[in-house]
Amino acid sequence: MDMQLKSGYMVSSSVFSDCVRSCINAGRLDTLASIIEKCKTTDQNKALCPNWNLCNLIADVALQADDSKLTFLSLEFLARWIVRGEVARPPVLLSVDEGLIVSALATAGRTFNSTLLDASWSILQRSLRQKRAPNPETYLAKLYALASLGNLQRAFGTLNEFETVYGNTGDVDQELFSPFTSLYPLVVACCKNGFSSLDSVYVQLENLSHADTPYKSVAALNCVILGCANIWDIDRAYETFEAISGKIGLTPDIHSYNALMCAFGKLKKTSEASKVLEHLVSLGVKPNATTYTLLVEAHLVNRDQKAALSVIDMVEAGFTPSKELLKKVRRRCSRESDFDSDEQVQTLARKFRYRMGTESRREILYGLQYSADY
């Protein structure tokens, strides 16, 4: 095949398809990408395109290998088929599977490929044909890719679109706009350069809130608050929290309070974290599992395993502690030689049917005696 292309011969569709299958079966994805690019550079072979199913196969194997180059080439082939179907008479409306696009966006984020990101989103829009909005997972994959690339302006623009589509629906999942889970890649991107990038993001959000077409987003500001918590800057976190209702004119949600509690907890300010919980409850805001988890972790950071257990007991009726959280409490009990509290943890683990297992390897590391004597 390489000799044919170098000699300037025209390659038939069947030979090209056989070559594609051979490269896939042999796992030679770099060779396949090279052949496709060589075909694109010659006038007599640039129109070569595998069939629809083979294009999807190329995309699948490329995504499994995190090969952004080959993924982009496969999406180009799929785009050709979509265009051909639209101009045919009668038209054949082909659509790329949205799950494939989600994987392509994730690959774009992992490989920092903005070209693949734009191509993936463009093909998705072409496939949906404005009949419905992309799924939440697709928006989150795009947010992850943009955050990985450090393109915060486009990331917040995507968040705005995401909130417009799914933020006002009654049955929206509370975790969909949580800075601790779904939007965490955006949080990491905001605090990548420390307080300078956080200040820049906040100033832009404040300016946008006073623009001719104002953009106000509690979810975006929550990302800034948690970003401040991640760099241990409680003052910036609190100022941003206050700005939600003061300067921006919005109402903090449960994620806002959780982010503030996280900031207090990291600095061992457990009393302040507890006051945040009391305040939000007094306002009629319903705490979620993250709220109690953060309060427990705040007590653990302060080496107060008894207080951590009291929080778990206090919300026993409506809050199920995770296995990982109980492991953290048990670890602190072990460090403090608090056997009574450790027994309470074991009781809770049996109640929730968690198999806690042993932590022998952790204990070995914890018990190492570091000395300069050899």
Describe the protein's topology.
Elements: H1 2-7, H2 13-26, H3 29-41, H4 52-64, H5 68-87, H6 98-111, H7 114-128, H8 136-149, H9 152-166, H10 184-190, H11 195-209, H12 218-230, H13 234-246, H14 254-266, H15 270-282, H16 289-301, H17 305-314, H18 323-335, H19 339-351, H20 360-366
Helix content: 55-70%
Largest sheet: none
State the order of secondary-structure elements, H for helix, E for strand. Answer: HHHHHHHHHHHHHHHHHHHH
Low-confidence stretches: none
The number of distinct β-strands equals 0
Q: Provide a count of the helices.
A: 20
Helix and strand content put the structural class at: mainly alpha
Identify the overall geometry: globular
Instruction: Determine Rg (CA atoms, Å).
Output: 27 Å
Task: Note the gap between the termini.
Answer: 64 Å
Q: Average pLDDT across residues?
A: 86
- The share of residues in extended strands comes to under 5%
Pfam families: PPR_2
Organism: Iris pallida (Sweet iris)
Keywords: Repeat
PPR repeats: 253-287
Overview of the structural elements:
- It is a single chain.
- The protein has 374 residues and is mainly alpha-helical.
- The chain has a domain at 303-374.
- It is built from 20 helices and no strands.
- It has helices spanning 2-7, 13-26, 29-41, 52-64, 68-87, 98-111, 114-128, 136-149, 152-166, 184-190, 195-209, 218-230, 234-246, 254-266, 270-282, 289-301, 305-314, 323-335, 339-351, 360-366.
- Helix 12 runs antiparallel to helix 13 (234-246).
- The radius of gyration is 27 Å and the shape is globular.
- Pfam families: PPR_2 (PF13041).
